[in-house]
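P.,

For your records, the input lines for the assembly:
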Amino acid sequence: MGRTLAEKVWDAHVVRRAEGEPDLLYIDLHLLHEVTSPQAFDGLRQAGRPVRRTDLTIATEDHNTPTLDIDKPIADPVSRVQLETLRRNAAEFGVRIHSLGDVEQGVVHVVGPQLGLTQPGMTVVCGDSHTSTHGAFGALAFGIGTSQVEHVLATQTLPLAPFKTMAITVNGELPAAVTAKDLILAVIAKIGTGGGQGYVIEYRGEAIRNLSMEGRMTVCNMSIEAGARAGMIAPDDTTFAYLKGRDHAPQGADWDAAVEYWSSLKTDEDAAFDHEVVIEAAELTPFVTWGTNPGQGAPLSAKVPDPASFADPSERNAAEKALEYMGLTAGQPLRDIKVDTVFIGSCTNGRMEDLRAVADILRGRKVADGVRMLVVPGSVRVSIEAVSEGLDKVFTDAGAEWRYAGCSMCLGMNPDQLAPGERSASTSNRNFEGRQGKGGRTHLVSPQVAAATAVLGHLAAPADLDAAVPAGV
Amino acid sequence: MEPFTTHTGTAIPLRRSNVDTDQIIPAHWLKKVTKTGFEDGLFEAWRKDPEFVFNEPARQGASVLVAGPDFGTGSSREHAVWALQNYGFKAVISSRFADIFRGNSLKGGLLTVVLPQETVDALWALTEADPAVEVTVDLVERQVRAGDVVADFEIDDYTRWRLLEGLDDIGLTLRHEEDVTAFEAGRPSWLPRTQSV
Ligand code: SF4
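Structure tokens returned:
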């Protein structure tokens, strides 16, 4: 019988297989950041072990880095110590690091692909759940815990139990106003935050094939919000075109050899998935979350649901709690929800395509009075490219703040946070209670919805804008 | 990881049930960036009470903790194991451990021994009466001995072997280092490297 894409990549990395033991899998790329690596390095130090493959390891600073005044010392002592510890560890163990102020610095999941380090068929790990982002290239990429970080540093392998496979097929073409973010939010609402548990999800179908690499990364990034171990998309010409010429992409004869191998990385016709979900692209519309987990979402045109409408008692209970925390009432149109803050950024939607989409909407318009809008590029490279296209000017002219690269308000470990009770429309990936700041209320949205929301001051799609304020007026 | 064969030391009787990992090591200690230096955070809140058993001068240097049932519930933080080890404990005895805590402890080389509550009661009585009494935790014989208490305990063969050999997961993988090296020799040369070494 044939094999799925995920099984092919897994099989190609088995170092050792023994009866009654997990497979020992080789890891091609290990990404590090300051939050989950310190105890792993400490463990190596205590055991007197080196990093086995410094040439397959790379670190960046992202979670704790400020997005303002980056030349000044970091005020928060905890953040400062974590960053300094990473720098010391990288120097001691010989790991390549991109620190604050470096041109390659940025959110770890933006940096890997942009350097061409993430390639099809690889195994990629990081002590960070959104490592699933790299699956957009047809890599098997997943988040690991700190003990596993230490394990990979010491051995470049991981003992792993097998996973199940799920296919999510999105048939047909996405309507013009619908983005990759809307698609994945709709998928999570459909299968639930635990729907992917134990699975590696492969996204397939025409709508997926038509996505850019940025869009594919947005989709795979949020696989973890459906509980999945990883998300994957088979590599194709879009993937190869994105990689060609990047710093670490193969060149010359190597490129040809690589493309030949990469082209074999697709699920065989006769392969069977453990579970299949089919979605019709034509039925999708701009999608937003109303609750406190990424599965609590609905089309923007809908109303805040009535908890009583959930048949499952635990879902009903969760909805009740969510509405209370979010300060919403059942039946209220989602479009009526006013926001205080709009956040553009994160490893979900902090890349060039996202910033361009936001700029296209903001050009000639103003952010609504009383709304704070933060635009935080996912990496310094994204920032430089955006400036070269004049996007920073578009943002600041509209009244938004143009910031330095990092995770920023995606998780509020740095000073970029919501105040208690404040409400945001955010292009990030988690709307958990307090995720963007204690007591903060988050609505997950696409960059396009975020931009329209910034202009109108309430949740809105770009189409609402044309009706309200014509561009250039 | 140091091999664990048999350990003899004085004990601290902790007559409390449902000791959760927040009590073992409070959350504000989790900001630390090392696996060491957690000893002062161990049971931090309780140790503020001068009467707390940990503060008795005769208990200093103890290396076996005799705890109440359901020890280690709550968050999965590995720091709880590190804190107990940093303080100097080699073994914890209880009639019931929380699963994740027990998994973490056996991975990290802290031997968690499950004994019936009657035996734990007997150990409490013994060590409370005489702080100097020594408790032997013998992994080779799977037996705990102290005064007139002799109790066999169960532990699965694989975990026992791993602890006797002092093999953490990394140590186990490194036993197959030849396989890893052989695999590396077969990797395509065009695969990306982050730096030349
Ligand atoms: S941007 Fe957000 S989700 Fe992505 S790595 Fe940073 S904190 Fe995690």
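Two observations worth noting. The mean pLDDT of chain A is 96. The pocket of iron/sulfur cluster is lined by residues A 62-63, 107-109, 128, 130, 346-347, 407, 410-411, 428-429 (CB under 6 Å).

Regards
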